[in-house]
Amino acid sequence: MMLFLKLSLLTLIISAPGLIVSRENMITCYSHVQRLTCETGLIKVKSSVYGRTNSITCNTNRPSSEVTNTNCALRITTIADRCNGLKECELKTELLGNPDPCYGTYKYYNTTYDCINGHLVVICEQGYSTLDCGSDSIEIINANYGRGNSRTCSNGIPSFQTQNTNCYAPNTLSTVAAMCKGKKTCTVEASNTIFNDPCFGTVKYLTVSYICTREIVTCESSTATLNCGAHRIKIISANYGRTDSTTCSSGRPASQISNKNCYTPDALNKIAARCEGQSSCEVPATNVVFSDPCYGTYKYLTIVYSCV
Ligand SMILES: *[C@@H]1O[C@H](CO)[C@@H](O)[C@H](O)[C@H]1NC(C)=O
């Protein structure tokens, strides 16, 4: 059995030709290096499981006692936290710090991921860069200040300052999202004054990945028009209902706008089925399309989408 298997699953996901470029799977036997890459697009992990769910994978030179338990699967997020939004990502699995889900069994890491369209910015320490969505809004996919490999931002730097490749400032994503989410442009700085120094003595860099989105709000019984020109529509989120009392409220009695807890759980799927992959698309904001989620309330349709 090979130590590293790379199975390229059905490369084109037909239902979402816009955002997902390809879907990949990577198996890595415990203590080895897991490498995820996207030839086109950015990594977005769908699932990472640490454990053993069959007896054949990673069984080379292992006694049967270590490979017979096939009922061991711990879902982990550490790989997504570190790799999402990057074009390539190498992790020494021993350093992930996951708890042992089945002592005595030889385990492997099984990660399934998509390559999605998006922007990636890499800023070396003490640099600045501006995320720019033109007339659209910034939606951050992931961010890290630290160092995940020794190559990035290393030109002319002594090697002892780039050797620590397991350096992650824990609050980078929330900090960058708080600064940039929803804005059209946003300048970010790779610096210890913004992110607490996660590894003193190591030269660091900031990676930020993002997509550009637009939001349209359509009052009940009107029709939403999504338009991506030469690009294709990808639906990010959607709701038909009411979550505040001000939107689409003019001329309405209080009884029709006081419910702020009205949601259509499958709105996203319905709109995606109708619009995704098209260059333009119309969605009526009506009970006929969505079924009435809150009878008696005057509703509106909110759609966040991206042109990819
Ligand atoms: C890896 O995970 C995927 C998705 O959960 C699953 O379909 C596949 O069988 C797993 N592969 C192995 C070798 O465990």
UniProtKB/TrEMBL annotation:
Is Translocase one of the keywords? no
Please state what the protein is called. Rhamnose binding lectin type Ib
- Pfam family name, one: SUEL_Lectin
Give every SUEL-type lectin domain span: 28-116, 123-213, 218-308
Q: Which organism is it from?
A: Ictalurus punctatus (Channel catfish)
The residues forming the signal peptide are 1-22
Name the UniProt key words of this record, in alphabetical order: Hemagglutinin, Lectin, Repeat, Signal
**The encoding gene:** LOC108264892
Query: Which molecular function GO terms apply here?
Result: carbohydrate binding
